[in-house]
Amino acid sequence: MNRSLLLLLFLLLSGSLLARRPACAQAATSRPTAPAPDSLALKAAATAAANARTAALATQTRALRQARQLELDRRYESAWQLLQELDSANTVPAVVLQKANLALTYYTATEGLTRFAFRNLRLTDPAPDSLRVLSQDTVRHNFAVRRVLERLYRQYPDNYRLARALGDYFYAVQQCDCAEQRLGEDEVFRRTIAAYQEAHAHGQGDYVSYFALGYAYQRLGRFPESLGPFERSLELRPNNPTVHLNLAFVLLELRDLEKARYHARSAQFLFPDAHHKEDAGFLMKEIEERIQQLSTPQAAPPTEEAVAEVPEKPAATPAKPATVKPATVKPGPIKPVAAKTPAAAKKPAETSTTTAPKKPAAKKPLIPKTSEPTPSSVKKTATPQKTE
């Protein structure tokens, strides 16, 4: 009996010990382990790097805003120097994009769009494109626009603002005719189209880029394809006379005369200067003449039945031949025929100093010059992005 009681007590004690053992193990595993020194250092380094990136981005944003303000104040040399200090190696896309816009728009001298000169202008000074013809500035800033943009676009293929900037570059080549001579004119137009199509497909476009795309199609003779970009440009800027004029030219080529007349009349009304009004008026006159030619009824050719009903004329009776007597010529001295003196040359009419408007060349329609803010429109705020 005692032996049985002892065995029972032993079994009870063993069960209680086994029941307490998992709880103790669980408590031991739930205790937090002390982090290793290396993990703490890595975490601190990552936090410091993130803070440095945030600070650098904030500095970059402030500098870009300041550079835009300098452009509005027409202090283009100062704006360039600020951007150059911010990214002298041309590795930051945001800075390079602003550099490219400044270089292509506000330079006063260039060598093949790879080296540039800028000026700080007063509000009353002429625009940079007027100063270019003077050739007084010395280029000193190296910035090969195409090479820098293409390198960054290969590095950041999803940054379609770089594709838009490449389109702007090739459009600037068309306007200045100062670079890429080895490519040839048609190849420049094809590259303009390719770059803008890529940018527009990803939402990077404005009224200028759509006009430039339509103009490239127009210069290649692909008139139906130029209609869409021109119309999109007018949707974004309805009162742009240059787009109206080029669209009228394309519609005239496609023989859509009523629409061509509407856009030519709009261009003539919207152009502020007399010279461009004359260009639009000349195109308007040609369209009106085409419409007049088509509206004038022409005599229809006679039918076979009408020809059959015409009575034939009776045959004429032959007349008797008349007898001709030979004329008698009395001999006498032959008088020399007096040479006729030429009529006195008429005095040329005095021509007016105003020349008649010339027809725009079919191959080179009007190209708008990139405008800069006029003194009356300069604001002390950053310009908004031109993307849709």
List keywords for this structure.
388 residues; mainly alpha; Serine Threonine Protein Phosphatase 5, Tetratricopeptide repeat; three-stranded antiparallel sheet; 57% helix; elongated; disordered C terminus
Q: What's a concise summary of this model?
A:
TPR repeats lie at residues 207-240. This protein is mainly α and 388 residues long.
Topology, element by element:
Layout: H1 2-29, H2 37-72, H3 76-86, H4 93-106, E1 109-111, E2 115-117, H5 128-132, E3 141-142, H6 145-155, H7 160-176, H8 185-200, H9 207-219, H10 223-236, H11 241-253, H12 257-270, H13 274-295, H14 304-309
User: Mind summarizing the main beta sheet?
Assistant: 3 strands, antiparallel
Strand order of the largest sheet: 1-2-3
What distance lies between the first and last C-alpha atoms, to the nearest angstrom? 98 Å
Helix and strand pattern: HHHHEEHEHHHHHHHHH
Number of DSSP E strands? 3
Query: Into which percent range does the helicity of residues fall?
Result: 55-70%
User: In one word, what is the shape?
Assistant: elongated
What gyration radius follows from the Cα positions, in whole Å? 42 Å
Query: Regions with pLDDT < 50 over 5+ consecutive residues?
Result: 319-363, 368-388
| Tally of DSSP helical segments | 14
What is the SS-derived class?
mainly alpha
Query: What is the percentage of strand-forming residues?
Result: under 5%
What's the overall average pLDDT, rounded? 78
Pfam families: TPR_17 (PF13431)
InterPro entries: TPR-like_helical_dom_sf, TPR_rpt
Keywords: Signal, TPR repeat
